[in-house]
Write a structure and sequence with these properties.
Structural class: mainly alpha
Largest sheet: 2 strands, antiparallel
Helix content: 40-55%
Radius of gyration: 16 Å
Order of helices and strands: HHHHEEHHHH
Number of strands: 2
Strand content: under 5%
Mean pLDDT: 94
Number of domains: 2
Shape: elongated
Bound molecules: iron/sulfur cluster
Length: 133
């Protein structure tokens, strides 16, 4: 299955336009890890503490996430105001070309309820994988 992912990932994103969707940015928060906070604060020309105070909160896992959705960096046209410096979670989402897709099943199923590209890849995998029974 892992070997199919790059092709299915390409296929999904050739059909689905993220700029017409942005459901991830509206429904999930990425984790803002320390290097993300440092980078984003620098590009916004504010102090790291100010970035945290204005936009972020700690979640139950102790990760910084956005205080509320949609993400405060999402523009009206669904572009990202900090695209080049966005959190690494955003750059990797929805993991459809990574083994994370198969290893973290609960996360993948959760993502599939929000992200049409994830749903597409899962459906294609289901159709092409022989039934183990
Ligand atoms: S930082 Fe940008 S890519 Fe990430 S959730 Fe916010 S708007 Fe979306
Ligand atoms: S939810 Fe999926 S398809 Fe929609 S913008 Fe995010 S990554 Fe793209």
């Amino acid at each position: 299955m892992l070997r199919q992912l790059p092709e299915l990932h390409e296929e999904a994103f050739s059909k689905i336009d993220c700029l017409s969707c942005a459901r991830c940015c509206k429904n999930h928060s990425p984790r803002f890890k320390q290097p993300d906070i440092k980078r984003i604060a620098k590009v916004l020309r504010i102090k790291e503490g100010e970035l945290v105070e204005r936009y972020l909160k700690l979640d139950e896992d102790g990760d910084y996430v956005t205080q509320r959705g949609p993400c405060p960096f999402l523009a009206e046209d669904n572009t990202c105001n900090i695209y080049d410096d966005r959190p690494s979670d955003c750059a990797r989402y929805p993991y459809t070309d990574e083994d994370v897709l198969l290893k973290r099943v609960q996360l993948t199923l959760k993502n599939a309820t929000v992200c049409p590209a994830t749903f597409y890849v899962l459906e294609r995998l289901r159709m092409t994988t022989p039934n183990p029974a």
